[in-house]
Each structure stands twice: as structure tokens, then as C-alpha cells.
Amino acid sequence: MSERVSLDRLRDQAITxxxxxxxxxxxxxxxxxxxxxxxxxxTGCNVENASYPLSLCAERAAVATAIASGAxxxxxxxxxxxxxxxxxxxxxxxxxxxxxxMRVYVSQGTGDDVKQFWLHDxxxxxxxLNPSSEEPTRS
Length: 139
Description:
The chain is α+β, with helices and mostly antiparallel strands. It has four helices and five strands, in the order αββαβαββα. The protein has a single domain (7-121), classed as Cytidine Deaminase, domain 2, CATH 3.40.140. α3 links the parallel β3 (76-80) and β4 (103-107).
């Protein structure tokens, strides 16, 4: 974790952006805060659509914001659901894996319920367009 950004601050930013979620169908707001090695934090919330497949998960919204700002490396993501843990879906795990291994924190937003994972443990055999025989780099 970047020395400039504490786990609590990352969680707080995910909680703050969760309040902006557009969830008229599931009523399950999710916020995500994505951390770069340099200490920048990019946030995103879920945005639902009546055509469910067009909905956007909070994790992918955070990645899109980061990419639009020029970031390409990430060391952690904090995902906050409401009333239950919001584990990243398979699509989000694959999108995150595009940028290497990272720590994944999930919580309902309280300080005592944080779970930590490595992305490679959540998606051990991610799709790679040009797979190499080498093991992926792990931080």
C-alpha cells in the first residue's frame, strides 16, 4: 500500500463515491477506489441500466476514470458494498487483471469487516491475448 494513502482513506473514498451509485433496479450501491503506485486514487460507482448487460460495475468505472487520466499501473482496489461484501464479478476481475496483480479489499464499509485478497487468487488463470510461459509478476 502506498505510504501516502492509508487503507482507511481508500475505504472512505469508496464509501463516498458509493453514495453516487445509480441503482434503481438492484438497490445495491457499490463504490470502488483504485490506487496507483504513486498514491493517486481513482473512484467509480456502479451505474445500472434497464438493459442489464449495459450496466457498469464500480470497479470498471474506476478503471475507466483512471485510464482516461493517464494511469496504467495499480497496486490496490477497495470495493465497498452495502449490507454485504461486494466481491468483484468475473468481468471486473478480468479487466483488473489487464493491469497486473494487485491487492483487492472488500468491505461493507465498516472498519472491522475488511477482507483482503490478491487478484491472482481471485482469478488464477486470467485470459491473456498473448500468453507467455512465464508466471505473471506478483507484487
